[in-house]
Amino acid sequence: MSSEIRQLQPQQLWNKFADLNAVPRASKKEERVIAFMKDFGSNLELETIEDEVGNVIIKKPATAGMEDRTTIVMQSHLDMVHQKNNDTNFNFDTQGIDMYVEGDWVKAKGTTLGADNGLGVATIMAILESTNISHPAIEALFTIDEETGMTGAMGLKGGLLKGKILLNLDTEEDNEIGVGCAGGVDVTAIRSYNEEETPEFKIGYTITVKGLQGGHSGMQIHEGLGNSNKILNRVLFDGFENFGLRISEIDGGSLRNAIPRESKAIVAIDAVHEEAFLLEMNLQSETIKTELKTMEPDLEIAVSKIETPKNIMDLGVQEGLTRVLYAACNGVYRMSANIPDLVETSNNIARVIVKDGNIKIGCLTRSSVESSKWDLANTLRSTFELTGCEVEFSGDYPGWTPNMDSDILKVLSNIYKDMNGEEAHVVACHAGLECGILGTNYPDMDMISFGPNIKGAHSPDERAQISSTQKYWKFVLEILKQIPKAG
After folding, report:
1. Beta strand pairing status for 56-60 and 138-143?
2. Is the pTM of this model over 0.90?
3. Residue 432 has pLDDT above 90, yes or no
């Protein structure tokens, strides 16, 4: 890890971020980062608690002169999305993130950076460790598993926290103040199929879609980014229609909250059609690349000859699979009628696995309107069931309803305007923040979300802006000074 990161300003924040990024912290594998945070709190001789699901709470008393202010909860999540480029040799289970500075940005070498939500965690750590920052009493809440189920927020019991104001540090635009977010539900379709022995007259090929940007399946779902699963299916559908292409295996996408960047299929075609097949694949590849060239200039659709696979899918099931992947909604389903430019409801076809007689399709459906979320989830369910799949809903979590009369919103809006000479954008976002879930057991807590500029979250292009982080740090310090008096 480059020492240049530790020289950036504000040093106390970037040093804590470097410390944190040395600890592997995948969702659902947070044991090491939980121990790291507990050691951090204990070494500061602050009250440190691990709750029954693994959330860590560290409490710090108010500084002198701030004892009469309202106790606040500062909250960020410990886990990070683990994504890497296929040609990057990296083990997330054992290695720390390899960071570097490029201009005004901190980046990682071929992997996600972990700025989502590591910069929030590092901010809180720096304040807990400080001896010269004025602040009210703080309950620092570090949740687990935000990225793949929000089980930390869901498992947090009522009564553990006494704070009346929650500062969530998980927003990715420094001119925005978040007051609402989307809820979500995982939609999973599965079915089994019979494999057939590949006929002798067929030959094997791999078809690989790669070079896509990927990105956050909520915040970037409206940007027109390519979805590798949908693109690959388009190619497979065409190959079957024209050349009798038969599918042996598919491995597409990765995490539900990441727009899929890479997908691969192993297929078999009639040897007699090989020349025409390759010509058609090249033509279709160029057509798709032309369609997406503005957003996806590096898209590549590669077709390579391999040893003929031993088995292929049952023909009827293959027809159903390619049609259902064509028909299933991906992207924006509905824009909000109440908040300009806000995606209300969307779906990400995130993961497609076909292998050894089993199909699994994983989606993440999001919406800021509960009824619309379930409308789309049931639309997907109906679509998948038409082709014989069993469909499961899991990981359901609520959205966060905006409160435009929030007292802490008024405080932050005034501070932002005084510091920057312009109004902040008060927004709801199409990502899943933990505020809605935390509000279930803490309904009277006044919540707000903000953060520095982070681009490309959930992809290896993730990067954090240095100048924005400096702006955000000053904003945080001023907010702490202006927390209202208790009562």
Report:
1. antiparallel
2. no
3. no
